Amino acid sequence: MEQQTPSIEDCLKLLKGERDEQRLAGLLLSTKFCKNDDFDAISRVYNAVGNTFLDRLLRTGMGRGSSSKARQDNQDAYLQLSVTILAAFCRVPDIASSDDMVNKIPLILEILSNESGPLLVEECLEFLYLVSTALTNGVHVFYKSGGMTVLASHMSNFPDGSHTIELSIKLLQLTLSQLSLDVIIKEHCSELSSVVTVLAKQFALSHSALKFEALHLLSMILHSVYAAPVHETLRTMSNKSWTAYVHLGIVAVLQNRVAPNQKLEALILAESLTCIAGERWLIEQTSLPGVQDSIPADRCTLLVLETSRVEIAVLLNDLAYVKYEKSKEALIDETVIVKQRNLGIAFSLVEKIIKLISSVAEDEANIISEQMLTKIINGINETINVILEYLRDAKDHGQHIGNDLLASVRIVGSYLAETPAACNDKVVELLGFMVSVQGEDEQSPFSSVCFLLPMLCQITMEVDGCQLIVSSGTYKAVVECLIKLLLEDTGTLEDNGPIFLACDTILNLLLKTKQIRGHLDDAYFIRLMGVMSSWAENAFDWSCTMMASSICALILDSTSEIMLRRNPHFNHDNLISLCQLMRRSLATDGKFADSEADLHQIVVSDVSLKNVCETSSWRRHGPSSSKIFKPLLGFLHNLPFSHPIFKPSPSTADAPQATAVIAATHRREGSSTTAALSPRSPLVRSPLVRSRSPPPRSISTVAVSSSTALGRSISTALLHRRR
User: Fold this and answer.
1) Residue 84's CATH number
2) pLDDT for 581
3) CA distances from 256 to 260, 266, 294, 396, 618 (A)
4) What's the angle, vertex CA 447, arms to CA 442 and CA 452, rounded to 5?
5) Cα-Cα-Cα-Cα dihedral sign, residues 131, 132, 136, 139
6) Domain co-membership, 500 together with 418
7) Running DSSP on this structure, what letter comes out for residue 701?
């Protein structure tokens, strides 16, 4: 006679029994009926057994509430059974969202924190995920009960691609999406950093949807505006293999056909990695366990560049259409804000690749092939032309305010800082417009000028460059920018890179005033002289004093006392400060470093200083003026005849020109020259400002555009390799 299979009714009778043995038997039997989608059967079983018995069984399995020897012997079995049944019950959303289940989250986390078998761990994670999904409060209870700590400590032990790692990633994603990432980073920075290393490996090795879930989490964590502590923790880790895993995963995403939003997330992640590990991460080559085929060092760079170029072209076209074709109401649309944010990501990556190529071109090692260099350079040139067209469109429509425009100026400035000779007709046409561009939160075009300072400093070494900034009126923006920088100077060497660049630009221009066509507005320079002489009083470095006195001497030589007296920005206090500055700089004869010799020569060759002091009507305007000039005149008259100020000297036009700038640049070598600009939007960040000597003018056999100095610089390095 065949044995009859127990029915669900038999199971329910056992669950409703009076003795624990009957209920245990009913629970064991119920595992056959609590299938994934049979919510009716699961609900009937749950209602029959009740929460009280389930709670008692769970606590008994944890070693609580029972001293019976038999129950202690079966403790592990009770624990496994209770967690299995609870996970099955929570597949029904109404049960999972009940207070009874939410209250069990701390107990399940305690079980998970102990050494447990893989099956028990998986079912604990399933319970936590189902309860957290069913009720928002479940996520809060999970987090407040130490869920992040427990999860982070176990994730590295889960097998790659397993259901447990999948559940943990889903639980993590749920937590980050419902709670403030700012709070999580502050309270669990170390745990999140550990999680990032696990996610990076899954992103690289997984070939399922898990890859894109890991990508989403990585981009969410690392690109957050609050992520700086996580970045710093990751930098200090001794094991850097996680960056190589991200490198591998990004290449896999960008070289395959995936959804546009997934490619964008890959770019976001790449931009975050360049912030953490530097732009050379793009050409990183690291052997990874379980990865047989190595990726060429330059493939990631080219893939990131090409994808960024496509994004830039599409986004600029979309933004131009919204700005100039649609109604103004569309400008506040959320999609426009998202497009601007995405544009900032692509711009940042192209800017970092420009910096990378510039540094790689100077290396002797063949990290990037000549053919790949050519492709990258040509791609950058094409993208810059697209951006210049976008700026021209804005100029034609009378638009000069916008974070997208400011970001466009920034990347053009980064490009021209490396390739000043690439100032083509478009740049010449748009230079005056670019220095007028303002961010949405700015009151003046300050940031745009800072972005262009490295290029302006280099092109003004030549007369044509000076002629350009005079004819376009750019010099006025540079003077205004320098005044603002001087007034806001904190007195630290690290923050003064933009000041030095602006000073070098002004110095280059003033040394060539007699060689250029056009009139300089004295009012701007007179105001600068007053501010600069006051700034030099508290200069942290003697070179600052020499630079300030050189510029002030050249301004004095190019103006007159009448202009000084008429200018409301030059007053009695400025005159005192100026005389004291000149006296200090002249008193250094023979004491200054060789690097300041050119600057000192500019000061002593400007004989108009003595004439101003001796003939000025200011001397006759009361006793205070007499006190100003008397010490300086006495100092001048007491100088020996051998002093350079009494020697025949060339005119200002013949004074040292490029050597003064080069000396000033060399003098500051090693100091940080990053402009101290606070980012106010995800689209615009602080610029990389640096002064570079003129690029080599070698002719290359590589097919690189000869119109760009970047091409010539790289070509020179390639020729050096062959030798």
Assistant:
1) 1.25.10.10
2) 81
3) 11, 12, 17, 39, 76
4) 155
5) positive
6) yes
7) S
Instruction: Tell me if 86 is assigned to some domain.
Output: yes
* Residue at 128: amino acid letter: L
- Residue 575 pLDDT: 81
> CB of 410 within 8 A of CB of 351?
yes
How far is the C-alpha of 675 from the C-alpha of 494, rounded, in Å? 9
Question: Do both 192 and 105 map to the same domain?
Answer: no
pLDDT digits (tens, 9 = 90+) for 365-421: 667 778 888 899 999 999 999 999 999 999 999 999 999 999 999 999 999 988 887
- Name the residue with tokens 């059967």: 41
- Give the list of residues 6+ apart from residue 437 with CB closer than 8 angstroms, or none: 391, 400, 401, 402, 405, 406, 408, 409, 445, 448
Query: Crossing angle of helices 136-144/147-155, nearest 10°?
Result: 80
- Residue of 43, 71, 42 whose CA lies nearest to 57: 71
Q: How far apart are CA 700 and CA 332, in angstroms?
A: 49
Would you say 451 and 387 are in contact if contact means Cβ atoms under 8 Å apart?
no
Same domain, 165 and 265: no
Q: How far is CA 211 from CA 230, 353, 633, in A?
A: 21, 26, 77
pLDDT at 420 (0 to 100):
80
How does pLDDT run across 523-582, given as a tens digit for each residue? 899 899 888 888 888 776 777 888 888 888 888 888 877 888 888 888 878 888 888 887
What is the rounded CA–CA span in Å between residue 565 and residue 666?
37
Same domain, 281 and 314: no
Cβ within 8 Å of residue 694, ≥6 positions away: 420, 458, 461, 709
User: Is residue 4 pLDDT above 80, yes or no?
Assistant: no
Instruction: Report the residue count for the chain.
Output: 723
User: Where in the sequence is the domain holding 191, given as residue range(s)?
Assistant: 183-295
Average pLDDT over residues 193-197: 96
Sign of dihedral through CA atoms 669, 672, 677, 679? positive
Asked if residue 667 has pLDDT above 90, the reply is no
Q: Are residues 127 and 234 in the same domain?
A: no
Distance CA 322, CA 227 (A): 32
Across 1-5, 34-38, 170-174, least confident range: 1-5
